[in-house]
């Protein structure tokens, strides 16, 4: 079949300028369609990790945050004392000095959950120290292994200020001198063992 030759007109020139159309169009590259969202996802994750490490170090911590240190939300309920209706203020001629309130020491909470975590590689170390705590009256002690970054020395870590005296009692029972307030991975108090405290 012979196609007649026609003179070139403005439509032929326009078609040559913009390239092929229809089934002759250039295909999109599938690799770029997959790689672009993946690169964006990886970049966002790296940025989020960088922000977490920056905030961790801004608080004075060293290294990177341990993966098992998830913050726990705590609810503190405060009850305000209501004045007694029968008590009425009296006017006195001499000024009286009111004693400053003495700080109260929170009682030891033997029902607090205490996680004894072994990072020393000594079989049964956490279980042995858990038994010591139970013998001292602690009712919710558990044993496990440290996951993540280990401290440089045996440490008793508590999350809530109200557990400071309880953490001190745990440290006293186990013979540990390092007590700190910080993020606790499991329970109210974590005992992080990197050596045998009885040795």
Level of helix content? 25-40%
- In which order are the strands of the major sheet placed? 2-1-5-3-4
Instruction: Tell me, rounded to a whole number, the average pLDDT.
Output: 78
Number of strands: 5
Which architecture name of the domain at 113-193 does CATH use?
2-Layer Sandwich
Structural class given helices, strands, pairing? alpha/beta
Overall 3D geometry?
elongated
**How many strands, what sense, and barrel or not for the largest sheet?**
5 strands, mixed
What does the model show?
- There is one protein chain.
- The chain has 199 residues and is α/β, with parallel strands linked by helices.
- Among the domains are: 29-65; 113-193, Alpha-Beta Plaits, CATH 3.30.70.
- Helices cover 30% and strands 13% of the residues.
- The protein has a five-stranded mixed beta sheet, with helices on one face.
- The model has no long low-confidence stretch (mean pLDDT 78).
Which helices and strands appear, and what pairs or packs with what?
Blueprint: H1 10-18, H2 30-58, E1 113-118, H3 125-135, E2 140-145, E3 155-158, H4 164-174, E4 178-181, E5 189-193
Parallel strand pairs: 1-2, 1-5, 3-4
Antiparallel strand pairs: 3-5
List keywords for this structure.
199 residues; alpha/beta; Alpha-Beta Plaits; 5-stranded mixed beta sheet; 4 helices
How would you briefly describe this protein structure?
With 199 residues, the protein is α/β, with parallel strands linked by helices. It contains four helices and five strands, in the order ααβαββαββ.
């Amino acid at each position: 079949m012979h196609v007649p030759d026609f003179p070139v007109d403005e439509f032929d020139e326009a078609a040559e300028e913009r390239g092929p159309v229809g089934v002759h169009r250039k295909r999109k590259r599938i690799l770029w369609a997959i790689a672009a969202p993946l690169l964006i996802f990886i970049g966002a994750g790296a940025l989020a990790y960088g922000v977490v490490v920056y905030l961790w170090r801004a608080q004075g911590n060293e290294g990177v945050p341990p993966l098992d240190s998830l913050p726990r939300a705590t609810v503190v309920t405060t009850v305000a004392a209501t004045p007694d209706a029968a008590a009425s203020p009296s006017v006195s001629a001499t000024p009286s000095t009111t004693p400053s309130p003495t700080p109260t020491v929170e009682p030891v909470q033997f029902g607090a959950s205490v996680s004894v975590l072994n990072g020393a590689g000594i079989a049964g170390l956490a279980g042995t120290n858990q038994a010591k705590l139970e013998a001292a009256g602690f009712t919710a002690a558990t044993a496990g292994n440290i996951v993540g970054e280990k401290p440089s020395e045996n440490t008793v870590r508590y999350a809530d200020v109200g557990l400071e005296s309880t953490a001190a009692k745990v440290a006293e029972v186990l013979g540990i001198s390092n007590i700190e307030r910080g993020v606790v991975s499991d329970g109210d108090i974590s005992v992080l063992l990197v050596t045998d405290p009885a040795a």
